[in-house]
Amino acid sequence: MSLDLTVPLGLAWFAAIGLAFFDGRRAWAGWAAVAALATTLLGTVAVAVDVAHSGPRSVVAGGWPTTIGITLEADALGLTFALLSLSVLLVALTYEVVAGVQARGFPALVLAMATGLLGLCLTADLFNFYVFFEIAMVSAYVLTGYGDRPHQLRAATIFLIVNLLGSVLFLIAIAALYHLTGTLDMEQLAIRIPIVQTNPAILSATLIFVAFGIKLGLFPFHFWLAAVYTGTRPAVAAILSGALVNIGSYGLLRIGGGLLPRELEQGAPVLFALGAASILYGGLQAISCGDPREVLAYSSIGQAGYILVCLAIGGEAGYAAAVLFAVTNAINKTLLFLVVPLRGPWVAAAVTVGAASVAGIPPAAGFFGKAAVFRSTVADGNPAILTLLVAGSALSFIYMFQMVGRQDWATGDGVGPIWSDSHLPATRIIAGGVAVVVIGLGLWPEPLLVLSDAAATALIGRLP
Q1: Could you tell me if 299 and 400 are in contact, meaning their C-beta atoms sit under 8 angstroms apart?
Q2: By C-alpha distance, which of 409, 400, 417 is closest to 350?
Q3: Residues with Cβ < 8 Å from 296, sequence gap 6 or more?
Q4: Residue 122 falls within a domain, yes or no?
Q5: Which residue from 129, 436, 140 is spatially nearest to 252, judged by alpha carbons?
């Protein structure tokens, strides 16, 4: 008997509500949140196994009519990003619980974000996508202010103002698509959009791109990212860069590639240009930074550019490369934001693993993400883009190993902050575990390759 799609979603939601009434700084509350999130992840894995054997599944929550209830649909693309997001959240939550939760609402907020991210990856309706989108974003707004330092509150204010703008633009785009097509069901939208006049559809697509470009931190929508990523605690930075950023990656793939492929193809030159600007700008800025957290923040801008290039290439090869690169990049950033504040003999090895993965050096998992991007570019036959990717890879190699070389990670001598929890062995064990996963996926990449190919096939299969 297969697991109902609503079970993991409901578990995360009700656990978030229940734990909101308790002090998350107590150890039992933190570990209860970890248990709830781990169970949610296992439930999602069970759904993914069923989908792998039986194909996509769809259900209307609560047994309501399809025109009234929330329609959930599980396919390879949505489940890939759902599993990625939940895994990152589980690692970051466990890390913070071990280090010592600083605010009573932290565990409940992480579970609420898990609900939002899981819901938007499973929903088959664009309005419900927006609802889950906002659940995740509201949680993120509060989490960016997590801590008791003034710069954390400044980071939260910047994040709130900029991302509220993105949310408003996304809502306007949804209203425009409903006006054009008379529906927000994703399956029906994919059928009706091709018969809509080009100009209004392109305007809606542009608004959606700007909204998700802000979430990804693409150039020129990047101005909030460095201040926020460097102003939050390590676990929150890992959540933002490894889980919340998936809203942008998944949204551009699902809506751009699945619902608006005509508009995506017409906007390909613009996507190439912005992707190139993001790669070069992020890489050059990262090279100029001394603080490891700033290097990682600007690196995130550059790495997001690769996803945009893959989207511009399009087709099954481009979409598969975008999925694979998004997954490996999220894992890389989770590892690095968690390990950079730590010190110890094994920390240096973990930092080196993360740096190698970002630079695309085997046997780290990031090599296969970069290789997929290069392969899709070669298939596209555009030498200018291939030259850009080579330059971007060279920049990433320079700034990552420049960061490694500037700091004595074993003793703490050099540039960069040391957090008060850096002496805790358990935090180093958790970060080291992520490094082992990065190497493991590099040595045995078949699961990632199969997932990315299946996700791209699911996306192409939805096109009319």
Answers
A1: yes
A2: 409
A3: 229, 237, 241, 333, 336, 337, 340
A4: yes
A5: 129
User: What is the domain extent for residue 279?
Assistant: 6-461
- The answer to whether residue 449 is domain-embedded is yes
Can you tell me which residue has the tokens 């697991």?
3
**CB-CB contact of 366 with 354 (8 Å):** no
User: Tell me: the pLDDT tens digits for 369-378?
Assistant: 888 888 888 7
Buried b (16+ CB within 10 A) or exposed e, 347-381: bbbbbbbbbbbbbbbbbbbbbbbbbbbbbbbeebe
Q: How far apart are CA 118 and CA 282, in angstroms?
A: 29
Q: How confident is the model at residue 63 (pLDDT cuts 50, 70, 90)?
A: low
Cα–Cα distance, 346 to 432 (Å, whole number): 8
Residue pair 177/130 in contact (Cβ under 8 Å)? The answer is: no
Smallest Cα–Cα separation from 317: which of 267, 257, 277? 257
Domain count of the chain? 1
Nearest CA among 373, 372, 336 for reference residue 354: 336
The 10s digit of each residue's pLDDT in 220-265 is: 777 777 777 877 788 888 998 889 888 888 988 898 888 888 888 8
Instruction: List, for residues 97-151, the tens digit of each pLDDT value.
Output: 998 888 888 999 999 999 999 999 998 888 889 999 899 988 988 888 776 666 6
**Is residue 1 one of the residues assigned to a domain?**
no
| Integer angstrom CA distances of residue 167 from 7, 93, 158, 212, 283 | 28, 26, 14, 9, 28
Compute the distance between CA of residue 386 and CA of residue 279 in angstroms, rounded to an integer: 13
Q: How far apart are the first and last CA of the chain?
A: 32
For the whole prediction, is pTM greater than 0.70? yes
Q: Which residues contact 93 (CB under 8 A, 6 or more apart)?
A: 30, 33, 34, 37, 107, 110, 235
Length of the chain: 464
The 3-state DSSP class for residue 414 equals strand
Question: 């971007």: which residue's tokens?
Answer: 392
Q: How far is it between the farthest Cα atoms of the chain?
A: 63
Q: What is the pLDDT of the chain when averaged over all its residues?
A: 84
Spatial distance between the Cα atoms of 251 and 247, rounded to a whole number of angstroms: 6
CA distance 397 to 404: 11
pLDDT at 410 over 50: yes
Q: How far apart are CA 356 and CA 345, in angstroms?
A: 18
Closest to 334 in 3D by CA, of 241, 231, 436, 425: 241
Quote the CA–CA distance of 84 and 391 in Å, as a whole number: 28
Task: Using the structure block, give the residue that is written with the tokens 């018969």.
Answer: 195
Q: Which two tokens stand for residue 58?
A: 């769809």
Closest CA to 137 of 257, 240, 221, 6: 240
Strands (E), 4-145: 57-60, 71-74
Residue 112 counted as domain residue: yes
